[in-house]
Specification:
Blueprint lengths: L1 E2 L6 H17 L17 E6 L24 E3 L6 E3 L2 E6 L5 E6 L13 H14 L4 H6 L3 E8 L2 E6 L6 H4 L10 H4 L3 H5 L9 E7 L3 E6 L20 E6 L3 H9 L5 E2 L15 E7 L2 E8 L4 H4 L1 H10 L2 H8 L5 E2 L22 H10 L3 E2 L5 E3 L2 E2 L1 E6 L6 H8 L4 E6 L2 H10 L4 E7 L5 H6 L9 H11 L3 H17 L4 E5 L1 E7 L2 E2 L2 E2 L5 E2 L4 E2 L1
Parallel strand pairs: 2-11, 2-12, 19-20, 19-21
Antiparallel strand pairs: 1-5, 3-4, 5-6, 6-8, 7-8, 9-10, 10-11, 12-23, 13-23, 14-21, 14-22, 15-22, 16-17, 17-18, 24-27, 25-26
């Protein structure tokens, strides 16, 4: 067994450092709003959330605000990418990456007073597996697990049937956060509605669906990750998270003083909060960039030539300059530049409308009377489904210039999931935030790939090796295969941009672009 509790693999550390440097050139990723002196405990922070959460239990939900009510076995430092202690003080990984042994920190309790021990961690991991499709995100991290054991009260051993190098980083994500035994006894739907108890520095006091989440300070907290700026209790007494999907409502509330912090400041509103008593903070999301994900079960999209033409027809820099801001980046790979293992494939994603037209001509798609291409009486007309409002009209126009018609179908989150499950779409607009290249296997490893497909081999290799150089090469091969065969059409890197009143200090970001309140305080 190899102990790696306080050491990060070299090649991936370099990748994170390089990516962080790139991000810093275009946007601030620091959580500081200036030196305001000694932090002062107390007060209520009012935060505007830009969407309605579908579920507050991160084991079940792929999205949701970072509440810092629950904690995970490990923690990923957002600056270095290092995996550092959290609920586990140390760990070992077997040389074949099949067995992971975690040693739990002494003295940790849940906010209901119960103690953290190996049996409750085991019950959490076993419970995720039992949730099945309800926990698709967290379940993917545990795929292939053969046993979870607790040989003593402070030790948990997780064993997989095949090498699973990604699992250590997965234990730092909210998807594998640890709930109290009492929370595990609550029905899954009630956990979604806020009945969750954890070991974190805040307690969920109340939740009014579609309106507000209220958090209060956890008294006696003493075990935060070493990368946090202080120890002990959080500074804030209370956090009121207002659910405000309308951008105009959030910006108006922030500018008028009804909010102290607002998430997802729209690019056009950024100048309003860049000074004038406010600060803009941003963090470029790691993971899969915002992309058009083709449904390759559809006959027209089974044709690689059509997908490659689409890849060439998207003008990514124009999307940034027209709709976004310098805090965002045009996609240069399927992974964002802040993701460990990122490979720059910008040349393969260059705008080339003439090349797109040539590919479609060669494939027999001819311009019709209205400019939309036709083959064998079938129009090259595709649709895309998506949830939150997106600036897809420009891509729609770009595709039209090469003869491809794109219909935009914005749906409610509940509708979106059902349509996706039914395969009732040509493209699905998605991004997936995770600071590890294994996000590629999570999204694309379930595709119908033959054993001869280089993508299948690359995804398997990066998941199965602890050697950082082997993993880096495999991640690069996977990205290259996805882009060159147009299994995904990357558009732009996402950024979390928040507006912060100058009276707020110490706001930070997690590695997965969540907002961290633990070090925050009010002057």
């Amino acid at each position: 067994m190899r102990k790696i509790a306080h050491r990060h693999t070299g090649a991936l550390a370099l990748a994170v450092a390089a990516a962080s440097a790139l991000a810093a050139c275009s946007a601030s990723s620091t959580g500081s709003t200036g030196d305001a002196g000694t932090p002062r405990p107390g007060g209520t922070l009012r935060f505007g959330l830009d969407y309605t959460p579908s579920c507050l239990d991160p084991q079940q939900a792929g999205e949701g605000p970072n509440l810092e009510v629950l904690e995970s076995l490990t923690y990923q430092d957002p600056r270095s990418g290092d995996i550092v202690p959290s609920l586990a003080s140390s760990w070992e990984v077997s040389p074949d990456a099949k067995s992971f042994t975690f040693h739990l920190r002494e003295g940790v309790t849940f906010s209901d007073g119960s103690a953290l021990d190996a049996s409750v961690v085991k019950d959490n991991l076993d419970g995720i597996t039992k949730l099945g499709a309800t926990a698709s995100n967290s379940g993917a991290n545990l795929a292939g697990v053969t046993a979870v054991t607790a040989p003593d009260p402070r030790t948990v051993v997780v064993t997989f049937g095949a090498p699973n190098a990604q699992f250590l980083q997965a234990t730092s994500t909210p998807a594998l956060a640890v709930l109290s035994r009492g929370s595990l006894a609550v029905p899954a739907a009630e956990r979604c509605a806020g009945k969750i108890v954890g070991t974190g520095p805040f307690v969920l006091t109340s939740y009014t669906a579609k309106q507000e989440i209220v958090l209060s300070k956890r008294q006696g907290y003493a075990w935060g990750p070493p990368s946090w700026q202080h120890t002990g209790d959080a500074y804030l007494d209370r956090i009121e998270i207002k659910v405000l999907p309308e951008a105009a409502t959030r910006t108006g509330s922030l500018s008028s003083g009804q909010l102290d912090v607002s998430s997802n400041i729209a690019p056009q509103d950024e100048p309003q909060f860049d000074g004038n008593g406010f600060t803009l903070l941003s963090h470029n999301n790691p993971g899969v960039v915002l992309s058009l994900y083709p449904n390759e079960r559809r006959p027209v999209l089974q044709d690689k030539t059509v997908r490659q033409a689409l890849q060439k027809a998207v003008n990514r820099p124009e999307v940034i300059s027209t709709f976004l801001s310098p805090r965002y980046r045009a996609a240069t790979s399927v992974l964002s530049s802040t993701t460990p293992g990122y490979t720059d494939l910008g040349a393969a994603l260059a705008y080339d409308p003439d090349g797109a037209k040539a590919l479609l001509d060669a494939a027999g798609w001819r311009p019709g009377p209205d400019g939309v291409r036709v083959r064998d009486g079938v129009r090259l007309s595709l649709d895309v489904i998506f949830g939150r409002p997106q600036s897809l009209e420009l891509i729609q126009q770009q595709l039209k210039t090469v003869g491809i018609e794109l219909t935009l179908r914005q749906l409610q989150i509940s509708e979106l999931q059902s349509q996706f499950a039914a395969g009732n779409f040509d493209f699905f607009l998605l991004n997936s935030t995770r600071a590890d290249p294994d996000v590629l296997r999570t999204l694309f490893g379930r595709a119908q790939l033959t054993d001869a497909d280089p993508l299948k081999a690359a995804l398997a290799t990066q998941a199965g090796s602890l050697d950082p150089q082997v993993r880096q090469r495999a991640a690069a091969d996977a990205q290259r295969s996805l882009v060159e065969d147009a299994h995904v059409i990357p558009v732009n890197e996402q950024a979390l941009v928040i507006g912060v009143s100058d009276k707020v200090h110490g706001i930070g970001f997690t590695a997965t672009s969540g907002v961290s309140f633990y070090d925050a305080w009010l002057s």
